[in-house]
Amino acid sequence: MSGEVMEDNSLSLTLLSPLLLLLCSLPLWLLLRPRPSPPRGCRRLGLAEGESNLHDEFDPKYSQGVPRTQREGGQPSWRVKALFTYPLKSCGGIELSQSDVVPTGLKFDRQFVLAENGPEGWNTRTLRNAGFQRMALIHPEIWIPCPSAPDYDPSLPEVKSQGVMLISYPRIALAGPAGLFMRIAMSTGVLSTRRTFRVPLHPPEDSSSGMNYPLTPVKIWKDKPLAHDYGIHLPATLHKYLGFEPATSPLTLFRSSTTHTRQIYRNAPRAEEIGFQPTTAFADAYPIHLLNMSSHHDVARRCAYAIPNLSISRFRANIIIQGPEAFAEDHWKRLDIAGVEIHAACRTVRCRLPNVDPDTGLRHSVEPDKTLKGYRRIDDGDRTNACLGMQLVPALPEFVIRVGDEVGVLETGAHRYIKMLAPGRRLRGCEGVCGGPMEGV
């Protein structure tokens, strides 16, 4: 009998030894694992970590409008408060102090999108789609070539692709004992709480990289533009984070094509008026989305019973302004920002997307959608949905916009939202197929 016990103990030790070795070596592996290095020859775009021009967004002073003639510390009272670009649609934004504006909007804005393959081919996915609220916690960084960087070299792949985008997302701990060590390592800072991968900002013009980014149709609303399939870069852990099995995942990443942008019509000004037909990449329908601080404060006050601090970041605007009274922008037709004429094409028709908290990725069951629909269904073109903010089309294809730039109103008038049309249908005087609704994602 004792021999059998000894044999059983020996067998147990044989089985446990590899597990004990794994558990003992895992912390050492975590310590010795190399950390991702920043892209060579590049600098990160945007404000320094921890800085934000919205640090005081809940200050009551933004609840009231002020006269345009006032000056605050030498600055105009009506001015650009904050700027954001959203390189990867429906994911985290990058706050800027200034931005180049290009024909598709703020530079880098909505140039990338995640898409799911289905019966009709590749279809874009956003925070609106069920199960995709986790996209809110995916954060892109833009790194652009910097000739003054000590390691800058024109032959670097990062420079040849005109920069790179780093994409990070929450690390999910493994199951079992190994997962316990991972959670301990993450809580103590030994292991990063986020995983990161990188993609080229532009497909390299030469074939030396060995990467192929085929032009593939991807559906966004009623349009199917050709875009570069970047799926080769998606790590298996990102598929799992979004709820897909890596081996059979129908998920990919697209980068918009500079030669296959979407011309927009509907409420947008025409080429004969401004000299070019407005275009967009993966924004819903118009190049730039604007929000007014006072208007947002009015909405946030009404939602306070459910969400005490409703951040303006939920509405994913490119330009946030301060100074005008609440909802004054509803009737703007043409603006002047830093001397550039900008058309207010139409009001921004809202969906339930702002119900997702960008800091947690959690979706509120009703707010702020319920409150908005309770008093902001104001546009005769769509009485079903609420409006907040304006969709902009600059009359100049390229310029620079900065935080602090003065905002003025050149013309006011009536707005009537034009809904999207079925594929192939055209509005009177519309030279192309009109795009989908704009909801600022």
UniProtKB/TrEMBL annotation:
Keyword field: Membrane, Transmembrane, Transmembrane helix
Record carries keyword NAD: no
Pfam families for the chain: MOSC, MOSC_N
InterPro entries reported for this sequence: MoCF_Sase_C, MOCOS_middle, Pyrv_Knase-like_insert_dom_sf
GO terms for MF: catalytic activity; molybdenum ion binding; pyridoxal phosphate binding
Membrane-crossing residue ranges in chain numbering: 12-32
UniProt name for this protein: MOSC N-terminal beta barrel
Native organism: Penicillium cosmopolitanum
